[in-house]
Amino acid sequence: MGSVGALYMPAASGLAVQCNAPPAAGSMAGLGNNWSWGFYPVLLASTFATLSACVAWSICWHSSSTTLWFPQTAVSALAPGLHSSWALVPNRRSPRLAAGPQLGPATAEAALDYEPTREERKQKNLQVFEKVLMELRNPSISVEDMAKTLDMYSPSFTSCSKMISDLGHTGSNDAILSVLDFMRKMQYPIDQRFFSDFVWEFGRSRKWRMALFLFDQMPFVGLQPTDKIFASVIKAVSKANQADTALELLDRMLAQGHSPDAPTMGAVMKACLARQREQPAVELYQRLSLGPEGASTVIYNMLISFYGRKGRLQEALQVFREMPAEAKPDVVTYSALIHAAAVARDLPAAMGMFEDMQLEGIKPNPHTYSSLIKATESEGQWRTALELHAQMQKAGIRPTVVTYSAVISVLDSVGVAEQAIEVFNEMTRAGLDPDVVAYTAVMNAYKRVGQSERAFQMYGKLQASGLTPDVCVYNALISCCATETQWKNAEVVFADMQRAGVKPDLTTYNSLINVYETVSEWERALGIWNQLKDSGLKPDLISYNALISAFEKGVQHEQAEHTFRMMQAKGITPDVVTYSAMVSVYEKARRWQTALQVFAEMRQQGIEPNVLTWSAAISACGRVGQWVQAFELFRSMLAYGVEPNVVTYTALIDSYEKEGLWQRALEAWQEMQAAGLKPNDVVCNSLVSVFRSAGQTDLAFSFVEGMPSMGVTPDVITYSNLIRACERWGQWQRAEATFDEMKQKRIAPDVMAYNNIMSAMITGGQIDRAIGYFHEMQDAGLAPDSYTYNMLIGMCEKGGQWEQACVFLHDMQAQGLTPSESAIKYLTMDGTVNPLANGVGGWWDAEDNAWGPAADEEQGWS
């Protein structure tokens, strides 16, 4: 006889009893007189009849045995007389026991009458749920095995529902479909409410894909969504800003004859605005506003805020005017309008709306003040920003981080750096954690006051606070590096930015070019320019201006000229910064006439020169000794109402140097002082240079003595001019004393200063002293330049020191320096080598403008 059945129960709440075969005839002795072959089928029939009446128990048929759930308490009562032919099985994963305790028939009958408690049924359902859910979550399980598992354990309706909920949060679509198929097969009550609950649940937990997935299964079970289900799924996808999906669902809802309510259409409208889908959002707004109930204040506020964020003030005002009496404007409405005015840089409109809302009795909130403060930035009204900040606190409205950030940004934008830093500190003292905007603004403020190190400290605090730096933060840091000591840090920041995955924008590239322009690194600036073009971004006016300025600082006038023409060919109109840079380009190239042509072109284009442009044009003329033209430009500048600055007066004074017009230079100096302009070392050195050129040595010394009283400290250029002034009159002792004084004041002489003192010694006939200073210069680690060697060779020529001249010539050649024409003429004879130069330097080939090989190598001289 084959296997008949098994009573099965997990070990946690009971045991399983499996009957594989009836007892053998020879083993009946242990049963006593009450057991017989006739009793076995009767007992088995009684068992099945009893268990089928218990709703909480399940029967699962598989292979050649039957598994019956049996409570632990019942099994305990049954265990004392359990026969060896019944095996106890803890669960499917555990090995089946070969034999168990003996069971008598009377005990078995008592056990079959056992009624499981509610808690036991609940425990049984929980175990089934956990077991099936674990199987369904197995990533390697197939759809067929999912179905078999569900059939094997036959979970209840409640368990199946809970499985769908749990599986939905992990995105197990196939498993959910298997559960739904099982529920249909079991004819569980899957109705519209069933789907409605799940769509609502997943929508609330932002699982919009799962909400939509279950929504789409409704037709496959013969159900059509109701208005409520449509609304739930539309709101779920709208909350995730899935505008296209929301619009598609709304169309389906309308096509099926359903009527979406205002909150549903409002949710879709909000999603459209978040995704910049203006046209469908406006159509929904119009439909709502023309509907029987009309649009609510919330709907109007949404569209006003949308226009406000884009600075489209007039359109925001139009929507505001369309608001009916029922939809009363509130604080959100007015705050959005003020924000629109702020973005549109219309301070009067913002202030007007602020007054209107107060007249309507609507109290402003922190967002209102933040927007209004931001609006003051357009006109640089930083004092108004501070007044509004104080006003809101007086009204009992506590400023938020956004409010403080707005104030700091306004102060930074107008260069009131100290105040910006103070407000930032006030914010931290108030216990508020700065946001990225506040950190960016204060970093810019520290840059303005020349405290780049503090800006980097702020960057460290930003990172320590857990905030993620954005492109504006990195741009601020790069701008802080536009100094002689910090410029290399810009490259480090740029590399960090790229490693962090922050994509550089146009401002990033422009800032980098500006950093390299500041330190005259035009090659690096050009490299960043090429990166900018490779990035797909289009250079703007600021980009071109920065690159032209970099070429101007690097004295690359041809490159600057090419860039200037290229930007015009690209349709970018030069501004005053561009023209000022181009005038400076030609000024440095000593092309004063071209500089004036650009200056005239600028005015023809209707662009008025500023003080920088005028100063550059004056300098272009003065640099080549065109002092009359420079003076005429200066007079024209005054006539046009442009006030000269220190740079202007420096350029004018410089123009008088070549002709030694010291009276005119002194007059310009006095005008500058009368204008209340504070002199710097550059203008002071220019005036000393004019005195030196005019032979006014005593006047030069007297002026330098008074420089400290003007707050200006003489530098190496000042002393070099004084030494040259002494040289003119052969005052080598005074020149030497001046040189010594410079060193005593710990002003390190440069190559120019050494050249001047050596020249003064040579002029005074002090050759040995000149040679001594030459060696001193080399000992100081300074490399002689062409002027140094040409001067020394000239000295040797006058003194007849031919051998020493050849030594200087050899050193000069070794350093790749070019001799002067007089030196070449002295050391050569009609293009041939001077015998005295034989073996030390070769000859100078005037045609190739280079040194030829040594004579003994080329011509075999010995």
TrEMBL record:
PPR repeats lie at residues 226-260, 296-326, 330-364, 365-399, 400-434, 435-469, 470-504, 505-539, 540-574, 575-609, 610-644, 645-679, 680-714, 715-749, 750-784, 785-819. Keywords: Repeat. Pfam families: PPR, PPR_1, PPR_2, PPR_3, TPR_24. SUPFAM superfamilies: TPR-like. It comes from the Eukaryota. Residues 168-287 form the Pentatricopeptide repeat-containing protein-mitochondrial domain. InterPro entries: PPR_rpt, TPR-like_helical_dom_sf, TPR_mt. Transmembrane segments: none annotated. NCBIfam families: PPR. PANTHER family: OS03G0856100 PROTEIN, OS12G0638900 PROTEIN. This is Pentatricopeptide repeat-containing protein-mitochondrial domain-containing protein. It comes from Eutreptiella gymnastica.
